[in-house]
Write a structure and sequence with these properties.
The complex is a heterodimer. By secondary structure, chain A is an alpha+beta fold. Chain A is built from 14 helices and eleven strands. In chain A, the strands form two sheets. In chain A, strands 1, 2, 3, 4, 5 and 6 form a six-stranded antiparallel β-sheet that branches. A five-stranded antiparallel β-sheet of chain A has the order 8-7-11-10-9, sandwiched between helices. In chain A, a hairpin with a 5-residue loop joins strand 4 and strand 5. In chain A, helix 6 packs parallel to helix 9. The two termini of chain A are 27 Å apart. Chain B has a single domain, classed as ATP adenylyltransferase (HIT family, subunit A, 2-Layer Sandwich), CATH 3.30.428. Chain B is 28% helix and 20% strand. The longest helix of chain B has 21 residues. The radius of gyration of chain B is 21 Å and the shape is globular. Classes of the chains: A alpha+beta, B alpha+beta.
Chain lengths: 399, 448
C-alpha cells in the first residue's frame, strides 16, 4: 500500500535519485516543489530560504497545498491566475500577498513552472519560486514611454520563455495573456495604487525569479539523468496515449472514494486511473493496476453472471450497480457494491467508464450522514465534471 | 400614450411540471396528485435538509495554516449536491444528457466557452415577456416553483440553529419555518445545474433582498468549489420565471469574466472592495473582501436593490466560492424590444443572461457553434453592455444606494418586512389572495 506520506517522500527520489535533496538544499533561493499526481497537490520539497521567509518548519509545510499561505488580503484574481496556470500546465509569474506563520503578510513575486517528463510529456512536478518584493516608492509616469514597452517584452519573455517570443505577438492566445498583464501594469502605473492593494515587482526581482527557476530546473534535469526518467522545462512530446493530464489527475485526486477509470477505446479496456482509496481497499500499488483490466479483482468464487452484467452494461453504454465478490492483492475477498457508468468527454463521446467500489458492511465509509449510495453517486458526478471540463481544449492538456 | 416593451422568446423549461399555459388550465387532477410543493402535497412529505454553519469571518481562501486541518475533506454540500443530481440523472428526470452536448473553449484571446445545445429549446412556443419592468408582482396564474414535483427538489437549505453543519437525510417540510430549497433545472446548461429558491412557499417575485442574497452567498461558500458558481438574472435581464431564484452549476473552467483585468475604484465600509471590469465587452463591477461574508453580501444586495428600484435590469455572478461577485447592469432586452439589435445577432437566438455575459455561451445552431469566435462572442456581448456614459451614471446611483443601505437598513437584516411596502407589493399580496381562491379547487394553496 502506498501511504500518502510515503508518496510524498518518494516523489523527488523516484524522479531525481536520493542525491537531489542535497543539491537542492545548496540553492540559496526560496522555493517549493509540488507533485500534482499526489492527492491534494502537496508540497514535496521546501527550500531553507522558503522556510526562513515563511517562518514555518519543514514538517509544517511538506504535505500541504501551497494555498495555505494565502490569507484575507490575497488578491483573488492572482490566485485564479495561478490555478489556471496549473490547469493549463504552463508557467506563470504573479505578485502575491502571502502570510507568514505569525500571521504577518508579505508581498512576493511568485514564479511557477511545470517540470515535464521528457519521455511522455507528463507534468512531473511544479517548481514555485518566491522572491520577496522590496517596498519602494511607486514609479510614476512611463505610461507610454519606451520603458514600459521594454518591460512588456521582457515580461512576456520571462513568462513564455524565449522560444515562444517570436510567436507571442502573432498568436492571439498568448497575446491575450500578455494584454491582460499589460493592462494590469498600465493600470497600476497610471492610477497610483496604494501599496497595500497591489505590489509590482521590479525588473531585477523578475530576473531573479527567472534565474532561480533556471537553476532549479538544471539541478532537476541533471539528477533525472541518473534515474533514467529524464525531465525538462519544456514539453518535449505530447501526452502519450492513455495518460491523463496533470490537471485531470489533480481534479480526480480530490475525490475520496475508491474508484477507477478505464479506457474503452484501448485494447482490453485498461485502468488508466485509480484513486488512493482504491489502493487502500485492494492492497494494490499504482504501478500494479495501471494498464491492467479490472478483472484482476475477480477470483475463484466471483459470480460470472455478474461479470456478464457488467459487460452488458458497458456494451449498452448504460450505468449499472452490481454486488460482486472481489479479491484483494493478498487474496482475501470482500463483497463489492460496484457502480459503473460511462463518462463522456467535452465532445460528448464516451471517454471512460468509471467504476466506484464500495465494500459492503464497511464501517469506515459512513461519512457525515450521506448514505454510501449517495457518496458513490457523488463520486460519479465529480468524475463527470473533471473529465468534461478538462477535455474542452484550453491549453495543451489532453485528457 | 403608455407603451410597454415586450420581446418574444422561447422560455426555458426548468421543471417537468412546467407546461404551456394552455395545457396548464386543462389539468384538473383531484388533490393535485403530482406531489408538488403546495399545501395539498406537503403534509407528510420529506426531503433531505442541509443546515449550514453561519460563517462569521470571511477568512480569504483557507485561512492561515495554523487553523487549517491537514487534509480538508471534500466539502459536504458539494458531495450532497453531486450525489443527488447524479441520482436524478440516472432516474431520467432531465430532458437531455447535458454531458452528451458538445462543448469547447473557443481558441482566442479570452477563452470564451461554447456549448452546442440543440435540445434545450425544443417543444416550446415563443412567449411574450415584458422587459421594461424589473420589478413585477408575483402572478400565481403563471408557472412558479411551488408547482415542481418533489422528486425535482434535491434538498432543503437553511442556516443551522446551533452554528454547526447539520444534515438530515429525511426531514419534514416545515411550512412554518419557510424553507429554502435547491431543485434541479430539467434543462441543464451544465452538469449540476440547480435552482436555489429562497423561502419557496412565500412566493417571492424575482427581486433581490439582503436575506436571500446572503443565502446564495452561503451556498457558494459552503460548496467550497471555485467551479461551482451561482448566478442571478433580474426581470428584463433574461429571467423567465418571476419567482425568486438563483441558478448554479459546475464547470471546471475559468470564465472569461473571471480572467478580465480589473481596476479598483473604492474600498467601502467593512473593507468591501469594488473594482471595475477592464478589457471586457460588458461593463460591470466586481465586489470582494469584507470583514465578514455578511458585509460583502449586504453591499452587493444594496447595489442590486438600488438597480431594481431604479428599473435597471442586471445580472449577478457569484464566483470563487462567494469571494468575488460580479454585477452587470444590462440593456439588451430593451434594445431588442426597440428593434435596435442587429438581425445577425438576433438570429443566433442567444439570450444574454448571466452565464452568457460571464463568457459561457450556449448555442442552439450547429452553424453558430462551428463558427464561434472571440469576435462573434464579443459582438454579442457588446450589445448587452451599457455605454460608458450610462455605466458611470449607473455607478453613481449604485454607490448612493450602497451608502444609504449602510445608513438605514440595519434592521432589515432582522426583519425584511420592516421596509414599507410599495403599492406594487400591496397589489401583489391582493393578487395572491385572489389567486389562491381561484386555484383552490385544483390545489389547496398555501396561504400566507
Amino acid at each position: 500500500m502506498e501511504s500518502e506520506l510515503g508518496l510524498i517522500e518518494q516523489s523527488l527520489i523516484s524522479s531525481y535519485s536520493v542525491w537531489v535533496h542535497e543539491a537542492l538544499s545548496g540553492l540559496p533561493d526560496s522555493f517549493t516543489i509540488t507533485d500534482p499526481s499526489i492527492s491534494g497537490h502537496p508540497i514535496v520539497f521546501a527550500s531553507k530560504g522558503f522556510l526562513k521567509m515563511s517562518g514555518y518548519s519543514k514538517n509544517e509545510v511538506v504535505g500541504r497545498n501551497g494555498r495555505v499561505f494565502q490569507g484575507p488580503g490575497t488578491c483573488r484574481r492572482s490566485v485564479m491566475e495561478v490555478r489556471e496556470a496549473i490547469r493549463e500546465e504552463r508557467a506563470v509569474q504573479v505578485s502575491l500577498l502571502n502570510y507568514r506563520k505569525d500571521g504577518t503578510p508579505f508581498w512576493m513575486l511568485f514564479h511557477m513552472c511545470p517540470v515535464f517528463g521528457k519521455e511522455d510529456g507528463r507534468v512531473i512536478h511544479f517548481v514555485g519560486v518566491q522572491v520577496p518584493i522590496s517596498r519602494r516608492p511607486r514609479r510614476s509616469g512611463g505610461r507610454n514611454g519606451v520603458g514600459l514597452c521594454e518591460e512588456r517584452s521582457r515580461m512576456s519573455e520571462i513568462v513564455y520563455g524565449s522560444c515562444r517570443k517570436e510567436v507571442c505577438f502573432d498568436s492571439l492566445v498568448d497575446l491575450g495573456r500578455v494584454l491582460s498583464l499589460e493592462s494590469a501594469l498600465d493600470d497600476a502605473d497610471s492610477r497610483g495604487f496604494d501599496i497595500e492593494e497591489s505590489c509590482e515587482a521590479s525588473d531585477v526581482e523578475k530576473m531573479r525569479a527567472a534565474t532561480a527557476i533556471n537553476n532549479i530546473l538544471s539541478v532537476l534535469t541533471h539528477y533525472s539523468e541518473s534515474t533514467g526518467r529524464l525531465v525538462c522545462g519544456k514539453r518535449c512530446s505530447l501526452s502519450g496515449v492513455g495518460l491523463l493530464s496533470s490537471a485531470l489527475n489533480i481534479s480526480l485526486g480530490r475525490i475520496k472514494q475508491s474508484f477507477v477509470l478505464t479506457d474503452p477505446n484501448l485494447p482490453d479496456m485498461p485502468i488508466v486511473y485509480a484513486s488512493d482509496a482504491f489502493f487502500k481497499l485492494t492492497g494494490y500499488a499504482r504501478h500494479e493496476v495501471l494498464g491492467r483490466n479490472c478483472r484482476i479483482l475477480s477470483g475463484a468464487d466471483t459470480d460470472s453472471s455478474m461479470i456478464y452484467r457488467i459487460k452488458e452494461s458497458i456494451q449498452n453504454e448504460t450505468a449499472c450497480t452490481v454486488r460482486i465478490l472481489n479479491y484483494r492483492k493478498d487474496k482475501s475477498s470482500f463483497w463489492n457494491l460496484l457502480h459503473i457508468s460511462p463518462i463522456r468527454n467535452a465532445s460528448g463521446k464516451i471517454a471512460y467508464f468509471v467504476g466506484v467500489q464500495m465494500e459492503e458492511g464497511c464501517k469506515n465509509q459512513v461519512g457525515h450522514g450521506l448514505s454510501p449510495e449517495m457518496r458513490q453517486l457523488s463520486a460519479v458526478g465529480a468524475v463527470r465534471i473533471a473529465v468534461r471540463s478538462l477535455s474542452m481544449g484550453a491549453g495543451p492538456s489532453k485528457s | 400614450m403608455s407603451m410597454t416593451l415586450r420581446i418574444k422568446r422561447v422560455p426555458t423549461v426548468v421543471s417537468n411540471y412546467q407546461k404551456d399555459e394552455a395545457e396548464e388550465g386543462a389539468r384538473r387532477v383531484g388533490g393535485c396528485g403530482r406531489n408538488c410543493l403546495n399545501q395539498c402535497c406537503i403534509p407528510g412529505a420529506k426531503l433531505p435538509l442541509y443546515a449550514f454553519k453561519k460563517l462569521n469571518v470571511n477568512d480569504g481562501d483557507t485561512g492561515l495554516l495554523g487553523h487549517e486541518k491537514r487534509e480538508p475533506p471534500v466539502p459536504f454540500l458539494d458531495s450532497l449536491l453531486l450525489g443527488e443530481w447524479e441520482d436524478r440523472m440516472q432516474r431520467g428526470l432531465f430532458r437531455y444528457d447535458v454531458t452528451a452536448c458538445e462543448t469547447k473553449v473557443i481558441p482566442g484571446q479570452f477563452g470564451f466557452i461554447a456549448q452546442l445545445n440543440e435540445g434545450r429549446h425544443l417543444k416550446k412556443r415563443p412567449t411574450e415577456f415584458r422587459v421594461d419592468k424589473v420589478l413585477q408582482p408575483f402572478d400565481c396564474s403563471k408557472f412558479n416553483f411551488t408547482k415542481v414535483g418533489q422528486e425535482e427538489v434535491l434538498f432543503q437549505f437553511e442556516a443551522s440553529e446551533d452554528g454547526e453543519v447539520q444534515f438530515f437525510p429525511s426531514a419534514p417540510i416545515d411550512v412554518e419555518s419557510s424553507p429554502s430549497v435547491v431543485a434541479i433545472n430539467v434543462s441543464p446548461i451544465e452538469y449540476g445545474h440547480v435552482l436555489l429558491i429562497p423561502r419557496i412557499l412565500e412566493r417571492l417575485p424575482q427581486r433581490i433582498d439582503r436575506e436571500s442574497f446572503l443565502l446564495a452567498l452561503h451556498m457558494a461558500a459552503e460548496a467550497g468549489n471555485p467551479y461551482f458558481r451561482l448566478g442571478y438574472n433580474s426581470l428584463g435581464a433574461f429571467a423567465t420565471i418571476n419567482h425568486l431564484h438563483f441558478q448554479a452549476y459546475y464547470l471546471a473552467v475559468t470564465f472569461p469574466i473571471e480572467k478580465a483585468p480589473t481596476k479598483k475604484i473604492a474600498t467601502l465600509n467593512a473593507e468591501v472592495k469594488v473594482a471595475e471590469l477592464l478589457n471586457y465587452p460588458v461593463r460591470g463591477l466586481v465586489f470582494e473582501g469584507g470583514n465578514t461574508l455578511q458585509d460583502l453580501s449586504n453591499t452587493v444586495s444594496d447595489a442590486c436593490i438600488c438597480l431594481q428600484e431604479n428599473n435597471i435590469p442586471y445580472n449577478v455572478l457569484i464566483s470563487d466560492s462567494g469571494k468575488r461577485i460580479f454585477l452587470m447592469p444590462q440593456c439588451y432586452a430593451e434594445k431588442q424590444a426597440l428593434g435596435e439589435v442587429r438581425a445577425e445577432i438576433l438570429d443566433t437566438q442567444v439570450n444574454p443572461a448571466v452565464w452568457e455575459i460571464s463568457g459561457h455561451m450556449v448555442l442552439k445552431r450547429k452553424k453558430d457553434y462551428d463558427e464561434a469566435s472571440d469576435e462573434n462572442a464579443w459582438k454579442l456581448l457588446a450589445e448587452v453592455s451599457l455605454s460608458e456614459e450610462r455605466f458611470q451614471e449607473v455607478n453613481a446611483l449604485i454607490f448612493e444606494g450602497i451608502a444609504s443601505g449602510d445608513n438605514g437598513n440595519e434592521n432589515l437584516l432582522e426583519d425584511p418586512e420592516v421596509k414599507p411596502r410599495s403599492h406594487e407589493e400591496v397589489n401583489t399580496i391582493n393578487k395572491r389572495v385572489h389567486c389562491s381562491a381561484v386555484n383552490e379547487q385544483i390545489c389547496r394553496l398555501f396561504t400566507m
